[in-house]
Write a structure and sequence with these properties.
Pfam families: MFS_1 (PF07690). By secondary structure, the protein is mostly helical. It contains 15 helices and no strands. It has a single domain, classed as Growth Hormone, Chain: A (Up-down Bundle).
Length: 380
């Protein structure tokens, strides 16, 4: 089953990359469409709004479909949409195709987490989910630097075309490697009521949204921020995305190794505290490119690990509700993306670029406070 898990990881790589890609090419998009940085950032903000609504709805609507067909089908549609964006004539056509694309892509990450949980014994589920989530780390470590560099040299259309081809390749791998008849517990209307009444699940979902809000306040505008604060060019911006992403990859690997010893609760807390330390260093070092780079690396160590641990904790909190809670956690991530990118856009447009780091840190600190409220009776 290793090849199946690897294909699921690749799918998360593609999903993370297509969702985050506009952040890596904001300037080429703005220049190509003749719009401002804030308007280019709306490709992420509006997409995140659709994602947060679509994730549970699409999850519910597809809960009886074989995961093999569902996940491969999602990648096919993502690929076709990106090939269309590569040939689209302007901003509004790209935005329209992107919104349709993310409606479908919303299903991938939560259903991949549910699928991999069915492929391994219960004792290995937290590690397996964390492994599949490494794809998101790689999307930043390898994908975002590629997007930032290639879009500055060859244009955003070329990048959209590459993303489309990669998605179609991933679809083929998923179809070949996943077993047939892989189905999760179907959604039911009573499941939604059970989730709302479950205190731990609600706290975990709010924690996800708050933590991601802080991160995306900066991530969405990382390139333009670096240019404004340090005079960075496309190569330096690509290096920053690489530092952040490589450290995220390493953090994910570390999380898979230590979660068996420390448990998901403690591993989650370590990850969020690491994010807070990195964001604070970024904010305090604004204008000093080396200090900001170190901050981005420390921050990166925690970002993907924190998200994978949230998925694992939600699954453990109520396994029969996993199909619902994992989808809702993805919605919480996208709520955070929408809130963070919207606040960041307003602050960037009003030249509050140094203050953005401190506001981001406040969000992450609040999520750490929420983490304390989720402490199990016997934290492991």
């Amino acid at each position: 089953m290793f090849l199946a898990r690897l294909a699921l990881l690749l799918g998360n790589f593609i999903t993370g990359l297509v969702i985050l890609a506009p952040a890596g090419m904001l300037q080429p998009l703005a220049d190509g469409f003749g719009v401002g940085i804030r308007e280019a950032g709306f490709l992420i903000t509006y997409g995140a709004v659709v994602l947060c609504i679509a994730s549970p709805i699409v999850g519910w609507a597809t809960s009886t479909i074989d995961r093999r067909l569902l996940l491969a089908g999602v990648m096919v549609l993502v690929g076709v949409a990106h090939l269309g964006m590569a040939m689209a004539p302007g901003y509004w056509s790209v935005l329209g195709l992107r919104l349709l694309m993310v409606t479908v892509a919303a299903a991938y990450t939560p259903q991949a987490a549910s699928a991999v949980a069915l492929l391994v014994p219960e004792k290995d589920r937290a590690g397996a989910i964390a492994f599949v989530f490494i794809g998101w780390s790689l999307s930043v470590a390898a994908g975002m630097p590629m997007v930032a560099y290639l879009s500055s040299k060859l244009g955003y259309g070329f990048c959209f075309g590459v993303l489309g081809a990669l998605a179609l390749l991933c679809a083929a791998l998923l179809f070949v490697t996943l077993p047939r008849g892989l189905k999760t517990t179907p959604f039911s209307l009573s499941s939604w009521g059970d989730v709302v009444r479950h205190r731990l699940i609600v706290l975990l979902l709010v924690m996800t949204a708050v933590q991601v809000s802080g991160q995306f306040l900066i991530i969405t505008y990382m390139g333009p921020l670096l240019t404004a604060l340090t005079g960075a060019d496309a190569s330096v911006i690509a290096i920053f995305f690489a530092i952040y992403g490589v450290c995220g990859f390493l953090g994910s690997i570390a999380a898979t190794r230590i979660v068996g010893t420390f448990g998901a609760y403690k591993t989650s807390g370590i990850a969020v505290a690491t994010i807070l330390a990195g964001v604070l260093l970024w904010a305090l070092g604004s204008g000093a490119v080396i200090v900001m780079g170190i901050g981005a690396g420390i921050w990166g160590l925690g970002f993907a690990a924190a998200n994978s641990m949230q998925q694992a904790r939600l699954y453990a909190a109520a396994p029969p509700l996993a199909s619902v809670t994992v989808a809702l956690n993805s919605s919480a991530i996208y709520v955070g993306q929408a809130i963070g990118s919207a606040i960041g856009g307003v602050m960037f447009a009003n030249a509050m670029r140094i203050e953005m780091g401190f506001v981001a840190a406040a969000f992450v600190a609040a999520s750490l406070g929420l983490w304390l409220l989720t402490r199990p009776r016997h934290a492991a």
